[in-house]
Amino acid sequence: MFVAAVLIAIPAAAVIRFAGDHVGLLIGVAIVVCAGLAGSALLVRRSRIKTREIDRVRLIEAFRLAQMTPTDFERLLASLCERDGCQDVRVVGGAGDLGADVTAKAPDGRRIVLQAKRYRITRAVGSPDLQKFGGTCFSIHKADVAALVTTAAQFTPQARGYANQMNIRLFDNKALSAWVSQTGPSPWD
Predict the structure, then answer these.
(1) CB-count exposure of residue 41 (10 Å: 0-12, 13-18, 19+)
(2) Which of 91, 87, 109 is closest to 100 using CA atoms?
(3) What is the mean pLDDT of residues 129-148?
(4) CB-based contacts of 82, cutoff 8 Å, min separation 6
(5) Of the four listed, 6, 106, 120, 149, which is most buried by Cβ atoms within 10 Å?
(6) DSSP per residue over 3-55, as a string?
(7) Is 13 exposed, middle or buried (0-12, 13-18, 19+ CB in 10 A)?
(8) What is the pLDDT of residues 139-174, one digit of tens each?
(9) Nearest to 79 by CA among 114, 50, 32, 55
């Protein structure tokens, strides 16, 4: 037992002596550690505030988009394509559009074909919408990138499965709001 007490006392004495000899160094290290922790907490807080602000902007955009007419919605998608550097942007929606509402050439040269579905946020986009679009977007419109863009909040599982099989990108109201507010990618990214 005496040996154990000596084995503990010797390192403890060395630590105490080191602390006494290097008080300034230890205070400096403590200040740096505290400043680092405070900085990290500030970055986390700023990140949370920024995330809340982005969510607020997206919610406002989703509400605004839901109020548009279908024609205005198609025009908006075309203007977003132009804003993001696309060329040869055309609104072709309407009767006889064969599933293409907006066509464009991406900044990297790929042909983009967008199908616009301005639906209530509570409506799910179903497989029939995707099948109509999928039947023409590549074969008739020669799309390199095909995307269905909607104001609805979700796609049915069948629609997601079909889109995955056909390589059609899906943009729901969250993704659309992020594209509009430039806090998320465009359909061809």
Answers:
(1) exposed
(2) 91
(3) 94
(4) 89, 104
(5) 149
(6) HHHHHHHHHHHHHHHHHHHTHHHHHHHHHHHHHHHHHHHHHHHHHHHHHHHHH
(7) exposed
(8) 999 999 999 999 999 999 999 999 999 999 999 999
(9) 114
